[in-house]
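Limitations

Structures in this collection are predictions, not experimental determinations, and the ligand pose is part of the prediction. Treat each record accordingly. The example that follows, with aspartic acid as the small molecule, is included so readers can see exactly what is and is not provided: the inputs are given verbatim, and the output is the predicted complex.
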Amino acid sequence: MLSPPSTRFITVMSNFSPALAIHGGAGTIPRAALDDSARAAHHAGLRAALTAGFAVLAAGGAALDAVTQAVMALEDDELFNAARGAVFTEAGRLEMDAAIMEGGGRRAGAVAGICGPKNPILAARAVMECSPAVLLAGAGAEAFARAQNLVFMPQEYFETPRRRAALALELDRRAAGLPDTRSDADRHGTVGAVARDAAGNLAAATSTGGITAKLPGRIGDTPIFGAGTYADNASCAVSCTGTGEVFIRFTAASDIAARLRYAGQTLDEAAQAVVAELLTHGGDGGLIALGREGPPVLPFNSTGMYRGYVTADGILHTAIHREEFTKQPFY
Ligand code: ASP
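Predicted complex:
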């Protein structure tokens, strides 16, 4: 059992101030359709992920472990589009992408188009730590994860009635040739985390089911380093959510790092500029980013983004749309 975090411990013992930010995707349920119990459940899910990740940092652990724990918690929660609760391809299958990167040595690992590992983020981490590859896809990635003794689940574990209904709605719409009026929640989502530990190391992790009714074989921005996921101790850690194709074409995450390194922008300026530019090219969504110092930034151009953060004071901040953050102490 971890003892309660001490703010004094964190500030006195380190040169860097630990921080963690998470997102549960830009595919939010519209404000008017989100009843009190659904709102409470999403906040609770975000807080559980913040708690899992911040427990690592408060105990003096590594940013890499903090983002792993936070993303695993979100993957296990069927409310979010990653692992359990992932969206379906147009063929009624599940194909998940995940990526993890640490900013010290710029080590990175990712998987794409897999269904099997209970926590795809652990498969991505295994690629980083136990293979010479950076990105493994499909059957090869699944075989590798099996060889690493990761826990596997049948497809039924990941399936939820809500995501099946979203697939049926979209296939019916296409068959009828109707315009796309679906909510963001029926379309897409992702989960992600960025962290900074007391040693000043940054890390990012992202995991997703992708876009509802996507083409089989389609891979989004999540496992593409520099697009949906990125970490570099010299600049920042970033995890994105939104229209993956646009985030890939505009290398969203590494553009933020480049603005910090070469254009002298602040993290907030860089992240806001990239999110605004993505929108002008049809890329709706958002991102979380954390720099070498200061608090995280969590901009989005969509109607909402499930999100949260915690810094050395241990207050868990969570929000869904453009309202004020809800605050709760870590313990
Ligand atoms: N970016 C994800 C993808 O394109 C989807 C999302 O974040 O909503 O796969």
